[in-house]
Amino acid sequence: MSNIVVDKSKVPWWVSNVIVPLVNLTLALLVSGLFVFIAGENPIEAVKLIIYGSFGYIQGFAYTLYYTTNFIFTGLAFAVAFHCRLFNIGGEGQAYIGGLGVFLVAINLSFLPVPIVWLLAIFGAFLFGAAWAYIPAYLQSKRGSHVVITTIMFNFIASSLMIFLLVDVIRDTNQMAPHTVKLPEEIWLPSFEAFSGILGIKIRYSPLNLTFLLAIASLFFVWFLVWKTKWGYEMRAVGHNTQAAIYAGISPHKNIIIAMCISGGLAGLLGVNEILGVSHKIQAGFPAGYGFTGIAVALMGRNHPIGILPAAFLFGILYQGGSEVTFEMPNITRYMFVAVQGLIILFSGALENLFRPQIESFFVRRLNREVNV
Amino acid sequence: MEFLSDIASLINSTLRISTPLVFAAMAGIFAERSGVIDFSLEGKMLMAAFVAAVGSYYLGNPWLGLLLAIIVCVCLSMLHGFASVTHKGDQVVSCVAINILIIGLTTALAAAWFGQAGLTPTLNEDQRFLEIHLPFADALRDIPVIGTLYSDILSGHYVFVYLAYLSVPLVFWIVFKTSFGLRLRAVGENPSAVDTAGINVFTMRYKALAINGVLIAFAGAHLSTAVNANFFREMSAGRGYLALAAMIFGKWHPKTALIACLLFGFTDALQIRLQGVELPAIGEIPVQLIQALPYILTVVLLAGFVGKAIAPNAIGQPYIKER
């Protein structure tokens, strides 16, 4: 137990918002290194591989940004709900159902002009993801059913539902594997290869596509919505102190529903990247853990778009560099990086106050001394 | 007669399937009654399954594997306490961190030590728990009713099944009939009053979490060293969450939580039998719907169609001692 008392008003913003998170991240990565060592590999070699895999060549870097796109969506999804004090850990299921929305819109409306199909498909993704978050939101607000359990259950239910649809309803009957037919090529989102020609770079294939810009736009959208609108204020008020919000005439029910639906919708946008941008069909299990990683991204980024962007990029590096590591090191599987996520959530979420008082008081003392001199 | 034996085997599998849920729900009661949210039952159960399987494999004795699992689970509970009791971190975040960490770590280590599939080696008969056949089970089998009840339902379970159902009255006695239990419940309802009475709130919560760790270890060991003979990736399959839902549905009471656990176990036992069965008028139910039944049931129970659940008053709030 630390008994250090720090005057919060004297702590510079960059100490609490940059230094402390970096210290926490470093701790998480140090423990991760220990795990890599226990698994029988050299952690320093692993770091070298991660850096080479994610920055070392242009195609690797494109992959890094492609993963970043997914993490921006799921990170924002968790953050929006978190500002209303809701733990939406159902991003995985919402993304899955969002993918269904993209596909259904795109396959049925592909006769429309291409940009309109894109817009409607994005809308479909958002709507389906939001709808999947609506029921847990309703149950939380009206019945007090804890959203952590219901959203987890909705992940399981989404997975069962999608496998049922993929096997029995929308499967490409010419194939054995449970996936749908491919979308018509003219409505695919242009990928990075198309642009790289203009930039004078030549790469064979990259999953990076126009959705990256949608992700950047979503960062602005969330920032504006949460901090610059009346509704964002109401939502944060409900999250901070529900009783006070009720006295101020703010309806917790309405805000819980809206926060969860926007959160689910943002998670659903992952389907745009995966289906309209990369695989052009629904494959079983395509959200592949991105929904859960969003939790780590949001907590590391302190639930703010400015923090979520670098956090998502860091996880992009870990994912892309991680695949390089799993390729080179037989003892490391991609699950090692799931454990790393857990450590990052632990140190930048639950244990964020571990060294905060010490670090803050250290800087407050140093800075005051400079002023006095 | 065939109908009767069908019923008997359904009850038999209900008892077996409910076992990890019962341990986990009892573990949850200790943590949550003391005011600490425990969504990390899922992760701890998975870790216990992994440690018990690996421990039994190397030490050659399932009891030693169980012991190791208990030690590791108590450590994880202490980690949860360190983050959320001592450092007043967010309890839900701490649980989510533990769950994700364990999903990754168990599979990563299993893959690193035993090969890419992430399975631990199959345990032989000395390294795992075997079914216990109660005395005279075979002799009594032919007696109608009593024979079925004794030989087909009560006999032939793993040791954990008996321990799980014995733990329920024990937990009831500890929580509701001892002074420790009174303090435990008081810490969850009104920690500052308990503090005024000279009882250390932090110590009480750590004690509750330690018991929680011991109980959840049994659930994991049951999965990997009794029902199955090895550990595989994500083998807890949401049971920690189901148990938590059962505990909430049971209003944080051992007896009602037990009933909810049995209901989950029954649904699960039923879903295995319903697969591929043609029902009159409806036809064959899609297998995915049947598999999703326990999860749908969880949501329905949590939605409280049988009454609203009231949690311990101070749950989820870190205790801040005033100066």
SSE layout and pairing:
The complex is a heterodimer of chains A (373) and B (323).
Chain A: H1 13-38, H2 43-55, H3 58-83, H4 91-108, H5 114-143, H6 147-169, H7 192-199, H8 211-228, H9 230-240, H10 242-247, H11 252-268, H12 270-279, H13 290-300, H14 305-328, H15 335-350, H16 356-372
Chain B: H1 2-33, H2 41-59, H3 62-86, H4 91-114, H5 137-140, H6 146-154, H7 159-177, H8 179-189, H9 191-196, H10 201-227, H11 239-249, H12 254-274, E1 278-279, E2 283-284, H13 287-302
Antiparallel strand pairs in B: 1-2
Describe the structure.
The complex is a heterodimer of chains A (373) and B (323). Chain A is mainly alpha-helical and 373 residues long. Chain A has a domain at 72-308. Chain A is built from 16 helices and no strands. Chain A has helices at 13-38, 43-55, 58-83, 91-108, 114-143, 147-169, 192-199, 211-228, 230-240, 242-247, 252-268, 270-279, 290-300, 305-328, 335-350, 356-372. In chain A, helix 3 (58-83) runs antiparallel to helix 11 (252-268), helix 4 (91-108) packs parallel to helix 6 and helix 5 packs antiparallel against helix 11. The model of chain A has no long low-confidence stretch (mean pLDDT 90). Chain B is an all-alpha fold and 323 residues long. Chain B has one domain (2-302): ABC transporter involved in vitamin B12 uptake, BtuC (Orthogonal Bundle), CATH 1.10.3470. In chain B, strands 1-2 form a two-stranded antiparallel sheet. In chain B, a hairpin with a 3-residue loop joins strand 1 (278-279) and strand 2 (283-284). Chain B is globular and about 65 Å long. The termini of chain B are far apart. The chains are: A mainly alpha (373), B mainly alpha (323). Chains A and B meet through helix 5, helix 6, helix 13 and helix 15 of A and helix 3, helix 4, helix 11 and helix 13 of B.
